[in-house]
Amino acid sequence: TYGQMDEKQSDKLAIVLPGYIYPPDAPATFFLKLAFMKHGWDYLTVDYRYNENDKFLALDDGGKAEYLKQDQAKIGEYIIDKYKNMSICLIGKSLGTTGILNILTQTNLLSAFRSISFMLLTPTESQKEIIPILKQEKKKLLYVIGKKDPYYEEAIIDTLKNEATIKYRIIKNAGHVFEDKDNNIETSVENI
Fold first, then answer.
1. DSSP result, 71-85
2. Of 96, 176, 91, 88, which Cα lies nearest the Cα of 142?
3. Is residue 79 a contact partner of residue 88, using CB atoms and an 8 Å limit?
4. Cα-flanking dihedrals φ and ψ of residue 113, to 5°?
5. What is the pTM of this model?
6. What is the pLDDT of residues 3-62, one digit of tens each?
7. How far is 149 from 55, CA to CA, in rounded Å?
8. Segment holding 16, helix H or strand E
9. H helix runs in 5-106, sequence order
Protein backbone atom coordinates (compact mmCIF):
# COMPACT_ATOMS: atom_id res chain seq x y z
CA THR A 1 0.00 0.00 0.00
CA TYR A 2 1.45 3.36 -1.06
CA GLY A 3 0.83 6.44 1.09
CA GLN A 4 1.81 10.08 0.75
CA MET A 5 0.96 13.27 2.62
CA ASP A 6 0.87 15.60 -0.37
CA GLU A 7 -0.56 15.16 -3.84
CA LYS A 8 2.95 15.55 -5.24
CA GLN A 9 5.10 12.45 -4.88
CA SER A 10 8.11 12.91 -2.61
CA ASP A 11 11.64 12.04 -3.71
CA LYS A 12 12.00 10.00 -0.48
CA LEU A 13 10.32 6.65 0.12
CA ALA A 14 10.20 4.44 3.23
CA ILE A 15 9.42 0.81 2.36
CA VAL A 16 8.29 -1.58 5.11
CA LEU A 17 8.59 -5.35 4.99
CA PRO A 18 6.54 -6.44 8.04
CA GLY A 19 6.76 -9.55 10.18
CA TYR A 20 5.22 -12.96 9.58
CA ILE A 21 2.10 -12.42 11.68
CA TYR A 22 2.78 -8.70 12.15
CA PRO A 23 0.68 -6.88 9.55
CA PRO A 24 1.65 -3.51 8.08
CA ASP A 25 -0.99 -1.68 10.12
CA ALA A 26 0.18 -3.09 13.47
CA PRO A 27 1.30 -0.48 16.06
CA ALA A 28 5.05 -0.26 15.46
CA THR A 29 4.75 -0.05 11.68
CA PHE A 30 1.67 2.20 11.83
CA PHE A 31 3.37 4.81 14.01
CA LEU A 32 6.54 4.53 11.97
CA LYS A 33 4.47 5.34 8.88
CA LEU A 34 3.07 8.46 10.56
CA ALA A 35 6.55 9.62 11.58
CA PHE A 36 7.98 9.21 8.08
CA MET A 37 5.01 10.90 6.43
CA LYS A 38 5.17 13.80 8.91
CA HIS A 39 8.74 14.39 7.69
CA GLY A 40 7.77 14.44 4.02
CA TRP A 41 8.48 10.83 3.09
CA ASP A 42 6.14 8.71 1.01
CA TYR A 43 5.53 5.29 2.53
CA LEU A 44 5.06 1.86 0.97
CA THR A 45 4.07 -1.24 2.91
CA VAL A 46 4.41 -4.71 1.45
CA ASP A 47 1.53 -6.87 2.63
CA TYR A 48 2.61 -10.40 1.74
CA ARG A 49 0.68 -12.28 4.49
CA TYR A 50 2.64 -15.51 4.17
CA ASN A 51 0.80 -16.81 7.24
CA GLU A 52 -2.44 -16.82 5.16
CA ASN A 53 -0.94 -18.29 1.97
CA ASP A 54 -1.98 -21.97 1.68
CA LYS A 55 0.66 -22.69 -0.97
CA PHE A 56 3.39 -21.31 1.30
CA LEU A 57 2.05 -23.02 4.43
CA ALA A 58 2.02 -26.43 2.71
CA LEU A 59 5.78 -26.30 2.07
CA ASP A 60 8.46 -27.82 4.31
CA ASP A 61 11.04 -25.49 5.88
CA GLY A 62 13.40 -25.70 2.91
CA GLY A 63 10.56 -25.02 0.50
CA LYS A 64 9.43 -22.05 2.58
CA ALA A 65 12.96 -20.60 2.58
CA GLU A 66 13.17 -20.93 -1.22
CA TYR A 67 9.69 -19.45 -1.66
CA LEU A 68 10.66 -16.45 0.50
CA LYS A 69 13.91 -15.98 -1.39
CA GLN A 70 12.18 -15.95 -4.79
CA ASP A 71 9.20 -13.86 -3.70
CA GLN A 72 11.28 -11.29 -1.88
CA ALA A 73 13.73 -11.03 -4.80
CA LYS A 74 10.72 -10.09 -6.96
CA ILE A 75 9.82 -7.43 -4.41
CA GLY A 76 13.39 -6.10 -4.64
CA GLU A 77 13.31 -6.03 -8.44
CA TYR A 78 9.99 -4.17 -8.31
CA ILE A 79 11.46 -1.60 -5.89
CA ILE A 80 14.46 -1.09 -8.16
CA ASP A 81 12.35 -0.80 -11.30
CA LYS A 82 9.68 1.50 -9.87
CA TYR A 83 11.59 3.71 -7.41
CA LYS A 84 15.25 3.84 -8.50
CA ASN A 85 15.23 7.64 -8.72
CA MET A 86 14.18 8.10 -5.10
CA SER A 87 16.03 8.08 -1.79
CA ILE A 88 14.97 4.87 -0.03
CA CYS A 89 14.79 3.70 3.56
CA LEU A 90 14.17 -0.06 3.59
CA ILE A 91 12.64 -1.20 6.88
CA GLY A 92 12.35 -4.80 8.02
CA LYS A 93 10.33 -5.91 11.04
CA SER A 94 11.14 -9.47 12.16
CA LEU A 95 10.57 -11.67 9.07
CA GLY A 96 10.93 -8.48 7.04
CA THR A 97 14.63 -8.52 7.92
CA THR A 98 14.87 -11.86 6.12
CA GLY A 99 13.21 -10.07 3.22
CA ILE A 100 15.94 -7.44 3.30
CA LEU A 101 18.61 -10.15 3.27
CA ASN A 102 16.98 -11.87 0.30
CA ILE A 103 16.71 -8.58 -1.57
CA LEU A 104 20.35 -7.69 -0.82
CA THR A 105 21.66 -11.07 -1.95
CA GLN A 106 19.33 -11.66 -4.92
CA THR A 107 19.27 -8.18 -6.56
CA ASN A 108 21.53 -5.21 -7.27
CA LEU A 109 19.60 -3.00 -4.84
CA LEU A 110 22.68 -1.45 -3.22
CA SER A 111 24.11 -0.19 -6.51
CA ALA A 112 20.72 0.80 -7.98
CA PHE A 113 20.03 3.68 -5.58
CA ARG A 114 21.97 6.90 -5.09
CA SER A 115 20.75 7.07 -1.49
CA ILE A 116 19.58 4.10 0.55
CA SER A 117 19.40 3.46 4.28
CA PHE A 118 18.05 0.63 6.41
CA MET A 119 16.11 0.01 9.58
CA LEU A 120 16.06 -3.39 11.29
CA LEU A 121 13.28 -3.72 13.87
CA THR A 122 13.47 -6.85 16.04
CA PRO A 123 15.62 -8.61 13.43
CA THR A 124 15.75 -12.39 13.09
CA GLU A 125 18.75 -14.68 12.44
CA SER A 126 19.21 -12.89 9.10
CA GLN A 127 20.81 -9.99 10.99
CA LYS A 128 24.03 -12.00 11.16
CA GLU A 129 24.31 -11.77 7.37
CA ILE A 130 22.76 -8.32 6.81
CA ILE A 131 24.93 -6.34 9.22
CA PRO A 132 28.28 -7.30 7.60
CA ILE A 133 26.91 -6.41 4.14
CA LEU A 134 25.72 -2.99 5.29
CA LYS A 135 28.94 -2.32 7.21
CA GLN A 136 31.06 -3.23 4.18
CA GLU A 137 28.98 -0.99 1.93
CA LYS A 138 28.96 1.79 4.57
CA LYS A 139 25.16 2.09 4.47
CA LYS A 140 23.22 3.88 7.18
CA LEU A 141 21.46 1.53 9.57
CA LEU A 142 19.14 1.99 12.52
CA TYR A 143 18.92 -1.21 14.57
CA VAL A 144 16.21 -1.63 17.24
CA ILE A 145 15.70 -4.71 19.40
CA GLY A 146 14.35 -5.58 22.83
CA LYS A 147 16.79 -6.86 25.43
CA LYS A 148 14.38 -9.81 26.04
CA ASP A 149 13.87 -10.55 22.33
CA PRO A 150 14.85 -14.19 21.59
CA TYR A 151 17.10 -12.89 18.76
CA TYR A 152 18.97 -10.43 20.98
CA GLU A 153 22.68 -11.25 21.19
CA GLU A 154 25.24 -9.13 22.98
CA ALA A 155 27.89 -10.24 20.46
CA ILE A 156 25.84 -8.71 17.63
CA ILE A 157 25.43 -5.46 19.58
CA ASP A 158 29.21 -5.35 20.05
CA THR A 159 29.67 -5.40 16.25
CA LEU A 160 27.46 -2.30 15.95
CA LYS A 161 29.47 -0.20 18.37
CA ASN A 162 31.85 2.46 17.04
CA GLU A 163 30.42 2.26 13.51
CA ALA A 164 29.84 5.74 12.08
CA THR A 165 26.96 4.63 9.85
CA ILE A 166 25.12 2.58 12.48
CA LYS A 167 22.82 3.70 15.27
CA TYR A 168 21.21 1.20 17.58
CA ARG A 169 18.69 1.11 20.37
CA ILE A 170 18.21 -1.66 22.89
CA ILE A 171 14.82 -1.49 24.60
CA LYS A 172 15.13 -2.65 28.20
CA ASN A 173 12.88 -5.57 29.17
CA ALA A 174 11.14 -5.63 25.74
CA GLY A 175 10.35 -8.75 23.75
CA HIS A 176 10.03 -9.42 20.03
CA VAL A 177 7.00 -7.18 19.46
CA PHE A 178 8.32 -4.57 21.91
CA GLU A 179 6.03 -5.90 24.65
CA ASP A 180 7.17 -5.34 28.21
CA LYS A 181 8.14 -8.70 29.71
CA ASP A 182 6.69 -7.68 33.09
CA ASN A 183 3.30 -7.23 31.36
CA ASN A 184 3.22 -3.50 32.07
CA ILE A 185 0.85 -2.14 29.41
CA GLU A 186 2.08 1.46 29.75
CA THR A 187 5.67 0.40 29.20
CA SER A 188 4.65 -1.76 26.23
CA VAL A 189 2.98 1.25 24.61
CA GLU A 190 6.00 3.43 25.33
CA ASN A 191 8.26 0.79 23.75
CA ILE A 192 6.38 1.10 20.47
1. HHHHHHHHHHHHHTT
2. 91
3. yes
4. -115, 140
5. 0.91
6. 776 677 889 999 999 988 878 788 888 889 899 999 999 999 998 889 999 999 999 999
7. 29
8. strand 12-17
9. 27-38, 54-57, 61-83, 95-106
